[in-house]
Design a protein that fits this description.
It is built from 7 helices and 7 strands. Strands 1, 2, 3, 6 and 7 form a 5-stranded parallel beta sheet that branches. The chain has helices spanning about 25-40, 45-60, 70-75, 80-90, 130-135, 140-145, 165-175; strands at about 15-20, 20-25, 65, 115, 135-140, 155-160, 180-190. The longest helix is centred in the first third of the chain and has 15 residues, at about 45-60. The protein has one domain: 3-Layer(aba) Sandwich (Rossmann fold), CATH 3.40.50.
């Protein structure tokens, strides 16, 4: 596994900080693809522990939520991988809590479902500009009708960030709803592609993610 380490990561527009334990290269790519496309969940406890450790190292705070995948994808797969990761974070000790709660408050038993995917074409395989044009979210009406308090701080959980369009669109919707601070916690960060003809000393440079994994 290639770890990000202490390097600061470029955050998508509207996101204050981007945190990831891994670079999207090598074995972690296979682990996440097996979860996302094969529904292989045996690694979820380990992934949740890695997210929880990254949360603690970065001293994140806020209400964890996720940028949901489209309903057609959920119906076909039977699950949303970002929701599974958020729940794995909670089970590993991640502070899934109520809006505006402090880290030392005991969290409620369920993650915070703040967003729904707006209707639109699928994101898989699209480039940055195309994704930004269609990556739409709306506030989850069930949550926003029931809760009088708008979360001041939110942490968006996802599996992979590549273009950042999905996280940027989710953040824009949350800020429109009143969220003031938004961080993102993902399992793996995809580095930008190397310049043409340039290679890392001692081997090939880490390449971009497969088009099927763009977020």
């Amino acid at each position: 596994m290639v770890r990000v380490g202490d390097r600061p990561l470029p955050a998508p527009p509207g996101v204050d900080r981007l945190v990831a334990p891994f670079v999207y290269a090598g074995p972690i790519r296979g682990v996440l693809r097996a979860l996302k496309y094969g529904n292989q969940r045996a690694t979820l406890p380990w992934l949740g522990a890695e997210l929880a450790a990254a949360w603690q190292r970065a001293r994140l705070s806020g209400s964890p939520t996720w940028a949901p995948t489209g309903p057609a994808r959920v119906r076909r797969r039977g699950f949303d991988q970002a929701a599974l990761l958020t729940r794995a974070l909670r089970r590993a000790g991640g502070p899934v809590g109520a809006p505006n709660s402090s880290p030392d408050q005991w969290p409620p038993p369920h993650p915070v479902v703040l967003l729904r995917r707006a209707r639109g074409p699928a994101q898989t395989g699209r480039g940055r500009d195309a994704r930004a044009a269609v990556a739409g979210f709306v506030l989850n009406p069930a949550w926003w009708r029931a809760e009088p308090v708008v979360p001041a701080r939110v942490v968006l959980v996802d599996d992979v960030v590549t273009t950042g369009a999905t996280l940027a669109a989710a953040a824009a919707t949350l800020r429109a709803g009143g969220c003031l601070a938004i961080d993102a916690l993902v399992v793996a960060w995809t580095p930008p592609p190397p310049a043409a003809g340039r290679h890392r000393n001692g081997g090939g440079a880490i390449g971009p993610a497969d088009t099927a994994d763009r977020h």
